[in-house]
Amino acid sequence: MKLTKPEQPIGKILQDRKLITKQQLSHALKIQKEQGGRLGDVLVGLGHVNHLKLYSALAEHHQLPFADLFKEKIDTQLLETSERGNYARFNVVPWRVEAGKTVLATSELSDEVLAWAKTKYRDYRFVITSPFDILKVLQDHFYAVDDEHARHALWKERPHESARYLFSMPSVVTMLIVIALMALVVIYPHLAMISMFAVMNFFYAFSLLFKALIFAVGDRSRLTQYAYRRKELEQMNDRDLPVYSILVPLFREDARTIQQLVAAIRNLQYPKAKLDVKLIVEAADVATIEAIKATQCESYFEIIRVPFSYPQTKPKACNYALRFVRGEYVTIYDAEDVPDPYQLKKVIKSFTDAPRGTVCVQAKLNYFNREENLLSKLFSIEYSAWFNFMLIGLDRLQIPIPLGGTSNHFPVKIIRELYAWDPFNVTEDADLGIRLAQRGYNTVIVDSLTMEESPIRLKDWMKQRSRWIKGYMQTYIVHMRKPELLLNYSGIKGFMGFQFFVGVPSFIFVSMLPMITISVIAAFQPHLMPNHLIFIVYSNLFAGIALHFAIAMRVIQFEKWQNMMVSALIFPLYWVLHAFASLKALWQLFLNPHYWEKTEHGITRMAVSETAVAAE
Question: How far is Cα 422 from Cα 593, in angstroms, rounded to an integer?
Fold first, then answer.
């Protein structure tokens, strides 16, 4: 099929139709010259024209009919499951058959589309439609296929890396051994108690030493992270920047949260014509969908409706939306996230400067409502210690990095090769970080901050933290099925780091309350424990208090926070809360392992500071 050469530029057609002004066209042409990309995408990114009007004009530009697939019925018998990937890749679908010719509706009349059509159909012709129309067809017709892929791709291809069936035969045998050891408490209560107490304190001591080491290394190595000043970011050539996809999973969000999110993405210093934002919602979540529509987002925002299925988790939703992304890179932001406006540019530069084999750039997280109450202050200290010290220390020591739940960035090609996120793991981020390490890939930390909303109620903190601990338990169980994979790629240092950073903390949290209880009893009944063991117990206790107080003070000094001394003093006790969260996590691990407890957003009374995430 030969196409007629366009006679009129798309800009002139839009202007003749009075859809844009002369000034808007001049402005868009200037931006196109500076940033690259297509004029239509630039106009859409600026909000001067919507997709429907743009592609109607584009049809005139190509001297082809325009098809509104929202109104015109498509012949679904022409859609082939085997071609679903090509439909999304080329933005084309077979629409109907007329006079023996297959009519192909496309929004991308490119050489690739023409080549694909030539190999696929004997007799065909084209009509123009919008990418939203293509998206609607794909979502309406292939939702079952896409949902199946989102849920089961990893499990089918690499079942040993999936948390779908958590307890394999080796893990069951291990649990039986643990139960048998616990039975010794009944037979030999005194000896068993002393032995178990000694083991718990051994792990506790080594965990403290490991944590102190990682923190100290991170403190000395912060200059090795990828940090860029605003001036060098502004000097980047926008024409060279790739299309960037942003996944935003949303669930029961209010209008205020949606408005804050959209404003934060609009504030990103990245060519809007090269943004591909997917707002991911459950198909039945009418309230969130209406809140998005009321916000009147630009056309680079798209709503992806996820059909109901189990598990109903964030990673499953992201897997589903990944089928629709068109960017070269992809990241995840949560509903309440406010990223550094220059974060995407910092990430692109980090990928350029990082060592070969780097496939993930992790940004830092903290809370914009830190000052709200004591709980938010404690949580902020923990997050700052985690992202400013601990993860950098892990990176420096080449220990696998369990990723944060948001603001981690990947090449789309790599994330698809890995079968994306595990939909059955409730800390899919940490799990993915370990899977990257198993394949010999690198993760680096970029000095870019994403602000989130801290839980300010204990019940919300408990939901978030119990899910986190449960997910770490899942991740540890999954990756200890074939420990040789992790050992081969990360070496003994990385392997032991995984034990003490992912596995041991969960054990310590679960055993913390029994250990404290026995310690108190032993203080009043010293004959129950040997003197040297009591000495070790209290040495561990005071060492733990001292370490966490020192961490809190160093964080406060680093962040230059004011009025935080009380929080630093209480910070060691904050970790006792994890003991209660771990018991809930352990309970759910057996009874409801894939249940995703949502953290409520929009509870805070504090607004996001406009300067909180500004680049230097």
Answer: 13
For position 44, what pLDDT does the model report?
Answer: 86
pLDDT for 611? 40
- Contact assessment for residue 329 and residue 412, using Cβ atoms and an 8 Å cutoff: yes
d(CA 257, CA 261): 6
- Of 447, 396, 444, whose CA–CA distance to 217 is shortest? 396
Residue 61: Cβ-neighbour burial (10 angstroms; 0-12, 13-18, 19+): buried
The token duo for 354 is: 């990082």
pLDDT attached to residue 245: 98
pLDDT number for residue 616: 43
Query: Rounded distance, CA 99 to CA 97, Å?
Result: 7
CA-to-CA distance for 363 and 344, rounded, in angstroms?
10
Question: Mind listing the pLDDT tens digit for each residue in 354-364?
Answer: 999 999 999 99
Burial class for 568, CB neighbours closer than 10 Å (0-12, 13-18, 19+): buried
Q: Which amino acid makes up residue 139? A: Q
- Ranges of the chain whose pLDDT falls below 50: 610-616
Q: Which helix (H) or strand (E) holds 192?
A: helix 189-220
Q: Where are the strands (E) in 63-141, listed by range?
A: 92-98, 101-106, 124-128
Does residue 36 sit in helix, strand or coil?
coil
Query: What pLDDT is attached to residue 2?
Result: 60
Give the bridge partners for 247, in sequence order.
278, 332
Write out the two tokens for 531. 């003197």
Q: Which residues of 232-259 are buried (b: 16+ CB within 10 A; e: fewer)?
A: ebeebebeebebbbbbbbbbebeeebbe
Strands (E), 181-283: 244-249, 275-282
pTM for the predicted model, two decimal places: 0.92
pLDDT of residue 162: 96
Q: Are the beta carbons of 578 and 469 closer than 8 angstroms?
A: yes
Q: Which residue has the tokens 């408490």?
A: 185
Please provide the CATH number assigned to the domain covering 10-141.
3.30.300.160
Residue 425's nearest CA partner among 477, 463, 383 is 477
- List the chain domain ranges: 10-141, 162-616
Structure token pair of residue 140: 């309406």
3-class SS of residue 446: strand
* Strands laid side by side in the 92-98 sheet: 92-98, 101-106, 124-128
In whole angstroms, give the CA distance from residue 280 to residue 306: 7
Helices (H), 17-130: 22-35, 39-46, 51-62, 84-90, 111-120
Instruction: State which H helix or E strand residue 339 sits in.
Output: strand 338-339
Please report the pLDDT score of residue 538 as a whole number: 86
Look at the block and give the residue holding tokens 């743009």: 54
Element (H, E) at 508: helix 504-524
Reference 92, options 140, 137, 122, 155; nearest CA is: 137
Residue 226 is given by DSSP the state: B
Distance from chain centroid for Cα 210 = 27
The one-letter code for the residue type at 64 is L
Domain formed by 162-616, architecture = Alpha-Beta Complex (3.90)
Cα angle: 251, vertex 257, 260; to 5 degrees: 135
Instruction: Report the pLDDT value the prediction gives residue 562, as an integer from 0 to 100.
Output: 92
Question: In terms of Cα–Cα distance, which of 601, 289, 264 is closest to 455?
Answer: 601
Nearest partner of 294 among 253, 250, 265, 255, judged by Cα: 255
Task: Give 499's DSSP letter.
Answer: I
How confident is the model at residue 139, as a pLDDT? 95
Sign of CA dihedral 105, 107, 110, 116: negative
